[in-house]
Backbone:
């Protein structure tokens, strides 16, 4: 039975683009033949990854035309790109220390030397505190800088430059910009990563004031 696959990293399928020689002609070798990697995961109806598939379990098409799968390999240990998004709005100020501690433990257990991660916080603005890095020390330093906005800042006053940080990106506004944070992380940091990738969001799940919609954020999110 053939399987329809989702194009998210796990199994690697490779096919070659090139024309077949006409009958009677000697085959030629071209140096500009393209090999295209297709990364895919197959899950069963329970959401579990199916791990025992072979090349014969797949079909590959381009614009409705079948393509041959020339190489097939399982990739079970691909590098991981992890995005950690932490809600620092006023509603989270009482649990921020617990979020920070949980983040320390999570990153320490999850990140291997080949993996990279970044940290974004969001409240009335979305700010990249640490860009992609494999350094646990840099990530922990960024986590230590997490703090809820002050009362005057939450009322709408502009924070001084010292509070903005040097890595601010994206949108600013009032409230809890959850959808904006997911969209920004997915569109600017995750989109170009051709490895396993995941976003982890620590929040109460309530959005207030985002420019982006839940649907746009969901579409952009990895996986």
Residues:
């Amino acid at each position: 039975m053939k399987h329809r696959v989702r194009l998210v990293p796990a199994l690697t399928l490779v096919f070659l683009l090139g024309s077949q020689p006409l009958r009677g002609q000697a085959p030629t070798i071209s140096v500009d033949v393209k090999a295209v990697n297709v990364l895919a995961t197959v899950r069963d109806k329970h959401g579990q990854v199916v791990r025992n598939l072979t090349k014969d379990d797949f079909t590959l098409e381009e614009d409705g035309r079948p393509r041959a799968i020339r190489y097939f390999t399982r990739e079970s240990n691909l590098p991981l790109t992890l995005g950690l998004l932490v809600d620092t709005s006023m509603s989270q100020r009482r649990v921020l220390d617990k979020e920070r501690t949980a983040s320390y433990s999570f990153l320490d257990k999850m990140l291997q030397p080949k993996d990279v991660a970044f940290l974004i916080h969001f409240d009335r603005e979305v700010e990249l505190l640490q860009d992609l890095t494999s350094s646990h020390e840099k990530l922990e330093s960024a986590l230590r800088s997490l703090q809820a906005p002050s009362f005057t800042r939450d009322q709408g006053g502009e924070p001084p430059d010292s509070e903005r940080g040097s890595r601010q990106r994206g949108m600013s506004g009032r409230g809890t910009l959850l959808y904006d944070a997911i969209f920004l992380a997915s569109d600017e940091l995750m989109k170009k990563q051709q490895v396993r990738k995941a976003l982890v969001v620590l929040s109460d799940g309530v959005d207030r004031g985002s420019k982006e919609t839940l649907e746009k954020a969901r579409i952009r999110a990895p996986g």
Q: What stands out?
A: The radius of gyration is 22 Å. Strands lie at 6-17, 34-41, 60-62, 65-67, 69-74, 80-87, 116-122, 125-133, 168-172, 196-202. Residues 161 and 168 are 11 Å apart (CA to CA). Residues 80-220 form a domain with the Rossmann fold fold (CATH 3.40.50.410).
